[in-house]
Amino acid sequence: MAPELQILIINGVLMAYAYLWAYPALTEKTLSAIMTRDVAISVAALCLAGGLFWGTGTSFSLILLETNWLWFTIVTLFAMETPLFFWFVRKYGIDLNDLD
What does the pLDDT read at residue 98? Predict the structure, then answer.
């Protein structure tokens, strides 16, 4: 399996967990609550990717450039999460100006 695909699967599974179970299960759906849990999910993605590729020298293709596992994970996680985040905010009517 291609290394890019491995990281995309990790990110996809974590995003599915976040937006289909963890975030909808919040009793109070606020921007602060989502951000707190998102940090933990992002750290989990980085730990899993790091566990697989840290120190291996594997390069990852981001279409226009080659990068390492860290930047590939961050960029693809951001790209996958952005549309999910805005969908979730719209669905639950979360105010983006209210951090509490």
Answer: 72
Q: What is the pTM of this model?
A: 0.88
pLDDT at res. 100 = 63
Q: In whole angstroms, how far apart are CA 49 and each of 14, 33, 45, 68, 91?
A: 12, 25, 6, 11, 30
Q: Residue 4 burial by CB count (10 A; 0-12/13-18/19+): exposed, middle or buried?
A: middle
Please answer whether residues 49 and 67 qualify as being in contact, where contact means their C-beta atoms are separated by less than 8 angstroms: no
DSSP assignment of 28-95 equals S--HHHHHHHHHHHHHHHHHHHHHHHTTS---EE-SSSEE-HHHHHHHHHHHHHHHHHHHHHHHHT--
